[in-house]
Each structure stands twice: as structure tokens, then as C-alpha cells.
Amino acid sequence: MKSRVNLTLDKRILVKIKFLAKQRKTSVSQIVESYLEKVVKKESDQSIIEIIEKLPKPSLPDQVDLKEAYYENKLR
Length: 76
Known about the structure:
single chain; mainly alpha; 4 helices; 57% helix; 0% strand; elongated
């Protein structure tokens, strides 16, 4: 069952989203609904790739031997 909702948007954003919807041959409502579905999607429903992509990226020196660094850290 679908329900109506009123949104208040900046006019510039509304113009852009209407243009985008026209290009994609869809509606503003469908774009908003798709976005909101992604927002409320549970972690358990996500693939392992989606979860990994959200993890913070480590900052490592360019010339680091990860295997060696792992074992050095493990010995400490």
C-alpha cells in the first residue's frame, strides 16, 4: 500500500531531481522511494561487499609487507 507524503525542497534541488527523473524515465516519487529503501535497509540484508565498503580504509605506508607486519604485531 502506498501513502502520500509532502516534502519541502529547495527549488534548485526540485528542478534538478525532476530533470534527473525525466532522463531516467521515472518519477521523483520513485527516486525518493528507492533512496529511502536504501537508507532503511538492515545490515543483515546487505551483502558482505556492501558491509566491507563501509569500513574505514586503513592508512598504510606504500612499501609495507602486510604479512611481516601481522606477525610482528602478533609477537608483541
